[in-house]
Each structure stands twice: as C-alpha cells, then as structure tokens.
Amino acid sequence: MAKKSAKKPARPGGSRVKFGVHGMTDIVKTVRDAGLEKEFNQALGDDGTFITVPRSSLTKIKEFVKSKPELAEFAHQMQHCDCDPNDPYCIYI
After folding, report:
1. 71 lies in which domain range?
2. Which residues contact 46 (CB under 8 A, 6 or more apart)?
3. CB-based contact 53:91 (threshold 8 Å)
4. Domain-embedded: residue 27
5. pLDDT tens digit at each of 93 positions of the chain
6. Based on the structure, what is the number of domains in the chain?
7. Does the residue 9 lie in any domain?
8. Is residue 30 one of the residues assigned to a domain?
C-alpha cells in the first residue's frame, strides 16, 4: 500500500502569491510544449487572473520584442494596439 505524502504547508501571506515573469513563462511554455494550452486555458477560466509587473519591466519587454526581427509582427501589434487604456486584459499598454 502506497503511503500518502504529507500535504505541503501553505505559504504565509493569504490568498495571493507573487512570482516572477520568468516563472510564468516557464509554466506557459511547458504547458504549450505538452500540447495542453487549450485545456490549461479552460482550467483557468475567465477569473481575472493577472500578473502585476513594474511598468519598467513591461517597457523592457516591449523594447526586447521591438529589437528582434523575428518578433516584428508582434512588435507591430504591441505598438498599434487599439485597446481602451483601462482594459485590464490588454497586454500592450
């Protein structure tokens, strides 16, 4: 009979946790590489899940994307976004 492992204790801090953009990219890449992106999106649902980053980090991301010819189409999308400035789902602001 297999022994149950002990449940990992909850981290202090309540119902919110912080983790880096690199951690999120690892999660998304691993899920996508496994062919589970659609199922992952369904599991998350539309529950207002957001990652907050400093504006300076978003600026660095946008500058990186703009500097790479391989990402030219994405850079164009980011620069010519027509999202409402208050749209929380827009990643290009």
Report:
1. 53-93
2. none
3. no
4. yes
5. 556 666 766 666 677 777 788 888 898 899 999 999 999 989 888 766 777 888 888 889 889 999 999 999 989 888 888 888 788 777 776
6. 2
7. no
8. yes
